[in-house]
Specification:
The chain is mainly α and 186 residues long. It has one domain: de novo design (two linked rop proteins) (Up-down Bundle). Helix content is 78%, strand content 0%. The chain is built from seven helices and no strands. The longest helix is centred in the first third of the chain and has 56 residues. The termini are far apart.
Length: 186
């Protein structure tokens, strides 16, 4: 083999490695974006359930208007944070979780409400949605962790730096109360 052939083979191997590393980072980036979209789908479902839940409780606890206003305000803030960073979304979700806990605490004072089929169904759907949100968050964080690790490890960091890949933020709950699930059973 001539020197030119050896240089061409080494160059071809390096080019193939760069292509494979780049494509791997693109795949992980797209998975992370898909996971973020899955979180948003589940949060949308949660936002859609909340007005029904509030209306269901309103009939029984008309004098608790500040609770309803807090839930509505928190829901609007969380919906507005939908395109924000994971940290901003987590903060808005923390506020909404706290408002929902207050709503469920108020509903405990109304035995007729706790027996209402519509309310029970809404509670069950909200609990199911909370489980799906938690699973979507875990999947997102796992995917982001894989992406960030691939971007930081050598020699992948050379490709990530060369093509301007940026690390993504994990979805982290910042308040201890928000880490607890919304209470949906009495």
């Amino acid at each position: 083999m001539t020197t030119t052939t050896i240089v061409l083979i080494v160059l071809a191997v390096v080019v193939l490695w760069v292509i494979m590393a780049y494509n791997g980072l693109i795949t992980l980036t797209n998975r992370a974006k898909e996971a973020w979209a899955d979180i948003n789908v589940q949060l949308k479902r949660r936002y859609d359930l909340i007005p029904n839940l509030v209306e269901s409780v309103k009939g029984y606890a008309a004098h608790e208007s500040s609770v309803f206003e807090n839930v509505t305000t928190a829901r609007a803030a969380a919906m507005g944070a939908g395109s924000a960073t994971p940290a901003a979304q987590a903060a808005a979700e923390n506020q909404l979780s706290g408002a929902l806990k207050t709503l469920f605490a108020v509903s405990e004072a109304y035995p007729d409400l706790k027996a209402n089929q519509n309310f029970l169904q809404l509670q069950q759907e909200l609990g199911d949605t909370e489980d799906k949100i938690q699973a979507a968050r875990r999947f997102y964080n796992t995917t982001v962790m894989a992406l960030n690790t691939a971007e930081q490890r050598f020699p992948g960091n050379l490709i990530a730096t060369s093509f301007h890949f940026a690390p993504m933020d994990l979805f982290e709950l910042t308040e201890a109360a928000a880490a607890e699930p919304v209470k949906v059973q009495f």
